[in-house]
UniProtKB/TrEMBL annotation:
Pfam families: FA_hydroxylase (PF04116). It comes from Pseudarcicella hirudinis. It is found in: Endomembrane system. Keywords: Lipid metabolism, Membrane, Oxidoreductase, Transmembrane, Transmembrane helix. One of its GO terms (cellular component) is endomembrane system. The chain crosses the membrane at residues 41-59, 80-102, 108-129. One of its GO terms (biological process) is lipid biosynthetic process. Residues 113-250 form the Fatty acid hydroxylase domain. It is a multi-pass membrane protein. Its main location: membrane. This is Sterol desaturase/sphingolipid hydroxylase, fatty acid hydroxylase superfamily. One of its GO terms (molecular function) is iron ion binding.
Length: 330
């Protein structure tokens, strides 16, 4: 295969155009009668929005390559790495845990609703742990490192985060009886919405989406989640339904008077791929090496980011609580 064919395949794959091109080439549209067929032609929507977002910034002369370059490099690195590492965690978890399911469901609307509520719970657990356990934060921080929001940020993940997420989310869903076809259907919706909520201000300035802001988690809520402002830290862990954020008191709407500052709280060189991708691991290993005693070394791995064996904690919970306490005085 020539380099041009390889590049063409990569571009087609990223844009999700393979199924659409096949439809036009064969003239056989019968696949559109199936859910998989409909999903396959819907895949290009998010990449198309990304292209529109970039073109709009170019047209308005607001394009800055730094806002897109690092997420793009991470996407390319993960794509190359993924060709050599394939975990198939979803299939493994389904095989392992299906026989232990508490109930059995099937593909009908009320079980889909049940499945989505369970899925959001599982997503909340995975996402919450990604912020509250330092080892998992090392995997998740790559996604939070960009200091600007755009659709490419949805592709900026550490390559091992997906297997870790799939183990937790799939295991919980299967154990609670979510049927695999229902699970795959939910995963598609979740993936689509999960990409869309990263839409940047260049494409949608006010991302509250009107009345929907009170019903679901909108891009506005997810911008809050990506913020390093003290009030916004470690909030809005759900993806579409905000039920679990409200139950566990992690729901936080975007406040009019607090402009969002994207990124992570430590000093980071966002132009350095290794700092963005591996910087949190370096910081963790450094703290482990300096920590006195085996107990403290293990605690640095499993306690929240910002925890210190000296008691001078700078965790998100401490920083946010202090901010709220000080601002409630006035």
């Amino acid at each position: 295969m020539s380099i041009f064919e390889t590049l063409s395949n990569e571009v087609t794959g990223f844009l999700g155009l393979g199924a659409v091109i096949k439809l036009f080439q064969t003239g056989d549209y019968s696949s559109l009668k199936t859910i998989d067929g409909v999903f396959s032609v819907m895949r290009p929507i998010i990449p198309l929005l990304l292209v529109i977002e970039i073109l709009r910034t170019l047209f308005t002369r607001k394009f800055k390559k730094g806002q897109y370059l690092m997420p793009f490099l991470i996407y390319v690195f993960n794509d190359v790495t993924g060709k050599f590492i394939s975990f198939g965690m979803v299939a493994l978890c389904i095989g392992w845990f299906s026989k232990y399911a508490l109930i059995h469901t099937y593909f009908i609307w009320y079980w889909i609703v049940y499945g989505y509520i369970v899925w959001e719970f599982a997503h909340f657990i995975y996402h919450f742990l990604g912020h509250k356990v330092r080892l998992f934060w090392c995997l998740h921080s790559t996604h939070h490192a960009p200091e600007h929001m755009n659709l490419f940020v949805s592709h900026a993940h550490f390559f091992l985060e997906a297997p870790y997420a799939d183990i937790i989310r799939t295991s919980i869903c299967i154990l609670l009886g979510v049927d695999p076809p229902v699970l795959f259907f939910i995963m598609f919706i979740d993936g689509f919405w999960g990409s869309f909520i990263h839409v940047g201000e260049h494409l949608i300035k006010n991302a509250r989406l009107g009345f929907l802001n009170n019903l679901i988690l909108t891009p506005s809520h997810h911008r809050v989640h990506h913020a390093k402002n003290p009030l916004y830290m470690d909030t809005n862990f759900c993806n579409l339904l905000n039920i679990w954020d409200r139950i566990f008191k992690t729901y936080q709407p975007e406040e009019e008077g607090i402009e969002i500052e994207y990124g992570i709280s430590r000093e980071i060189n966002n132009d350095n791929f290794f700092d963005v991708y591996f910087g949190e691991f370096y910081g963790l290993f450094r703290d482990i090496a300096k920590a006195p005693g085996i107990k403290n070394k293990f605690l640095y791995i499993f306690m929240p980011p910002g925890w210190s064996h000296t008691g001078e904690h700078k965790t998100a919970k401490v920083v946010r609580s202090k901010f709220i306490e000080e601002n409630l005085k006035y």
